[in-house]
Design goal:
Oligomer: single chain
Number of strands: 15
Order of helices and strands: HEHEEHEHEEEEHEHEHEEHEHEE
CATH superfamily of the largest domain: Glycogen Phosphorylase B
Helix content: 25-40%
Mean pLDDT: 92
Structural class: alpha/beta
Low-confidence stretches: none
CATH architecture of the largest domain: 3-Layer(aba) Sandwich
Number of helices: 9
Shape: globular
Distance between the termini: 48 Å
Strand content: 15-25%
Length: about 290
Amino acid sequence: MNISIENLINQSQSVGVACCDAGGANIINSLIKNFQKIKFKSYVDGPAKNILDSENIIFVENKDLLFKKIDLLILGTGSSSFEKEILKIAKKYNIVTISILDHFVNFRERFLHGMTPIYPDYCFVCDRHALKIATKELFPFNQIYTCKNYYVDTFKKYFTNNIPNNSSHVLYILENIKEKWGQKPPWEIAFFNFYNNYYKKNKKLKEIIVRPHPKDDPETYKKLNEINDVTFDLNISPITSLLKSSIVVGAESYFLYLAKESGFDVFTSIPSSIRKPRLPEDMYKVIS
């Protein structure tokens, strides 16, 4: 049997969607746009509320309405309990479930409900690198397959011949990493590694556009307001900021992967003395 997310969708009578975090929501939203003849019943929370915008989405206000008359459910895999709770209920109703793993980190934790893992019928990742990680971290669960990343394809099409050469702007992706690296928070250590060891040494750069992670409170990064060259981008879409930049920097955000796949020059700001970013090694340069 050929297991593909496209076949599973086309074979279903009615499809539901549930997601919360931005990563999964962006991938699912781009996927849905390629099935305009199908209406997707969607129950969302968090950043996903501002991301899902496909015209063939029917939003429902509560999970009870979501489960009525669907035989397939597509879920994101965020860090909150939102998708896990929905997955648990869907399995009780014997609804076929698909979970989409974005990024390359914390795969097992995304399915832990308390201390017990709860897995869908099918799990999809978007490339071979993620497949290798998921196969190892989710063992003995083995219903893991690759699917096309429609979100990456959207980015690639948008930025073909649209990346500015020798731009004076650099886009920096902020993320509030929950680790202990020293006396200062990891985001601050990473940012000032970039600022002191790359930005200040590169005379052509004049402005840093910073984008906080969608889940983060921008107040977390208020210290950056003290730097004259920094401007905050709090828009839902990153397109405007990307069109001004040819370089994208961050710690290990999945956004770096999207930028690299779209043709941007990408750097990690994690100091090499701390650890490597959990991203494919061929997709970023290191700021020492």
